[in-house]
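Reopening this ticket.

The earlier resolution said the output was attached, but the attachment link was broken on my side. Pasting everything inline this time so it's all in one place.
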Amino acid sequence: MKLDKIGFVSCWAYLRIYSVQAIHLKETLEKRFGLQVDVRTSNCGCFYTGFSNVISSFSNYESVLASREVQFIKLPYFRAHPEKSFVSQSARLIYRSITDPIRGKLYAQKDQGYPIIHFHQSADAFSIDSLKWLLHYNKNHAKTVVTVHRLSAEQETNPVVNQTYNGCDAVVVDTEYLKKRLMDWGVKPEKIHLIKYGAFIEHAKYNSATEAIMFAGSPLINVKGFEYLAPALRILKEEGNPLRVKLHGFHMPGHQEWADDIIKKEGIGDIVRWLKIANEQELIREYQNSLCSLVPYTNYPGSFPASLAMANGIPVVTSDDWGTQEYLDGTGLVFKSRSVEDLAMVLRTIRDEEALRKEMGQKALQVAERDFSWERISQKYFELYQSLTAR
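Inline output:
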């Protein structure tokens, strides 16, 4: 089977973490290997606030796309919202039971004739449910690759769902932690391949850092550890030597408000601020101009902020959950997840020990050049595609 083109199915919204990964992988595969990479995307559910937003997305969703050179499937996604009424929840469930198969069928149909379909799993329109139906309607038996960026709640509460991956030809994860979880849930080990997040390596141009930075975009509530970071910051403030923190990320309704309530409760509004970032260059500048990246996540992968921080030469402070520490290799500090006291201790260290920060930042660039460069990541994916089409 000739490997000359690939069909991507992915989130393609502007400056979202999963679309950024897919966009740069596409660009590098095309530039280095001459592959034709065509993208199929769809309406997702991340930023809908109500029924009217879903309906309006038929006409305006393209305005948030990273580029228009994609095939856009106009099929809105109604996300489950536990706070909604029983009638609303039931209607959403019925809607998804109808549209998930349609979406999966459309993904498969638009990728007919491609030797490889690469599904970038995130959430909603790009969830394991859509993958299941894509596999079902893959009548031409194209080789299927899924990169698992994040798991759905159902995948953790009903692990048998993960055996859907056994219908794929390759399953890409970015940590040994996730690989082990999938194997424990019945995914065949020979299907699973480890490829880390990619990042552009940037030697720092800015050096006036006075704050730490945290990717605190949605989902934020009870998954990214902010409810533990905030009291740790309060402890440092009460000691008379606060650590200032800037937060960034896009938010679903209610998520930033949830964090603001915690900030108010802990009395840290004078040392925590929200950033508005318009493009990747601004994002890079903010990371380079930071003391460190904070990844106190409790139930969410921290691969994006960790790889971004290291590629920009700053150390990482991460919890011991979800395998983020696998990225570090001596370029950051790890604390016990959900422990305010342990987190406060490592924050003191990263705040006070300038020589250590500099040493870890310098090593972070070396590790990033070795592990995260897009040349390296694209090479790994290209070799995986080659191995599949050679069968």
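Reporter confirms the inline version is readable. The chain has two domains: 5-197+373-389, 211-371. The chain is about 40% helix and 15% strand.
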